[in-house]
Design a protein that fits this description.
Layout: H1 14-19, H2 37-44, H3 59-70, H4 74-90, E1 110-111, E2 130-131
Length: about 140
């Protein structure tokens, strides 16, 4: 591909460099509390967002953001969100490398485990889980 690069790891100053737009390329891992697109797009890609370090500005994207945020139909909202993701990639504001899923597995005799449905929070309570096997 002909790409030559030098890598400089900045550690504790990386957030400051991002906020000041003093970088050519950066990797980010987004810590989201919810699985709702409003959190990612609104926080990182809407002008004035709390973590809008990319300084991305696109009026059409902002319009779609407002539209998807108010759309009650899941299928229609998903289509809008997919259009927004494509827009970010086409504008080179973001390249989506991967999405780490959260899967849960437990043995059938464990009772009371209800993994969170609308959040990726790993700090859910475990005091309601018990071993349902009968003691002999």
């Amino acid at each position: 591909m002909g790409i030559q690069a030098s890598i400089s790891v900045k550690g504790e100053v990386s957030d400051q460099l991002l906020q000041e737009h003093k970088y050519d390329i950066s990797t980010q891992s987004y810590l989201l509390v919810t699985s709702d697109p409003d959190e990612l797009f609104g926080g990182y890609f809407i002008e004035g967002g709390a973590r809008a370090w990319t300084d991305y500005k696109n009026p059409k994207f902002n319009e779609l953001f407002a539209q998807q945020s108010a759309e009650p139909d899941f299928g229609k909202r998903k289509a809008i969100v997919q259009q927004m993701a494509k827009m970010l990639m086409d504008d080179s504001a973001m390249i989506f490398a991967l999405e780490r899923g959260h899967e849960y597995a437990w043995r059938s005799y464990f009772k009371g485990f209800n993994p969170p449905q609308a959040t990726r929070d790993q700090n859910y309570r475990r005091d309601n889980i018990w071993d349902g096997r009968k003691v002999k």
